[in-house]
Each structure stands twice: as C-alpha cells, then as structure tokens.
Amino acid sequence: MAAENVKSFFIAIDPARHRDQLILPRQFTNRYPDLLGSCVILRDLGGRLWHIEVIRSEDRIILTTGWSDFFSHHSLMFGYMVIFEYRGASTFLTSILDHSACEIHMGDPGGSSTTSQPLPSFQITMSAPRFCHRCIFVPGTFASTNLPRFVNDVQIHDAAGRVWQIGVDSRANGVVRRFARGWAEFYTTKNIRPGDTCVFSLINGDVPAFNVFKVAVGGGEQTML
After folding, report:
1. What local confidence, expressed as pLDDT, does residue 218 receive?
2. What is the DSSP code string of 108-148?
3. For site-directed labelling of 5, which of 200, 205, 216, 218 has its Cα 20 to 30 A away?
4. Is the pTM of this model over 0.70?
C-alpha cells in the first residue's frame, strides 16, 4: 500500500493469469472490503474511462467483464506493472510501466500511438560484498530532488508482488542518505552479487516506493527483481 491516505496497489502482469480477469490483492481488499461496488471505473492516463464488472468470491474481489478489453487495448505484456490509485466513487487512476520502468501513455482513444515517459531513477553498481550487502547509498542529487525529507522507510515492490519495507538513514537536513534496515534480506533473497548493476525506479514519491531492476551484463536488458 502506498500510504495511509492514498489507497493504491500494483499488479505485475502475467498474461496467463490476468488476461481475462484480475483478482485484486488481498492486502487491499482485506483493508477496504466495502470500498467498491458492483462496477469499477478505470481511468487511464489518456483520459479514457473503462467500466469493469466486479464479482466477489469468498474473500476475493475480481475484475471481470470489461477487464479483457482494458488488457488488450493497453497491450499488456508479461512483466508490465499496472498501478491502481483509488480516487473515490469506485474509480481508479491507472498507470502502466513497461520493462524499462517507463510509464506508458496511450495516444488517442483508439490507441494508435504510444509514448513513454521515464520515471525518476538511479543506478548503483554493487561494490565490496560486506558493504553492499548491508546498505546502499542513494545519490544525493536524486534524494534531494525526488524523495521527501525525514522519512523513516521506503518500499520496494518486487516482481512477485511482495512489498519490502526498507529503513533509511538520513542526513541532518533530512535528505535520505542510504537504504539500510531490511536491505540485506532483499539483497540475499534476490541473489544480488557484487558487481551487479541495479536500477531503482521511483513509482510513488509521497511515501517512496521503488521497483528494482538488475541490468544484464554488458548493459541493455533489465530484469525486475
């Protein structure tokens, strides 16, 4: 969840599971069980509104009729991220990130054109094992420009849908200095090694949340961790 007063979540797309219907995350539906009616509206960044039927099965909330049209129109692919921000009245603002963590904007309502706008990000090459395993230092220019001051934690949203809480240490002026508590577990679990280069893409700035991508040897292709 992005923040106490901002109801949001994201989905890492797998067409085999998500092409025809979408089950909303339990963390969201358990926290807000009565938030949605029998239909939701998804508003994409092109301004188009999509009316999606909602069904409830046991403790699950599922987007059904209309979802496959949204899926096809936006050409969702494996590994794309769809971010849902609740705006009230059963309406979500949606944004889509491609494999390079760029935000995809559909052009006209027919979807005849697509452009991408890079999200704020920084890149780190992991150094000596004992150092990069414990913490990573955030570039000062990035932190002062893109992150709120005097925060205690940031989030990492991984490819499996898990949200990692990472404690931060800050400078005296409140600018984030490094990711510390919780980083070692993420580092180990994701099999990061010294010499690996990772890109940290900021997907939400109010309560900072990141996707982390490992850059292939030689550069180019990025894999979301």
Report:
1. 67
2. STT---EEEEEPPEEEEE--SHHHHHH-EEPPHHHHHHHS-
3. 200
4. no
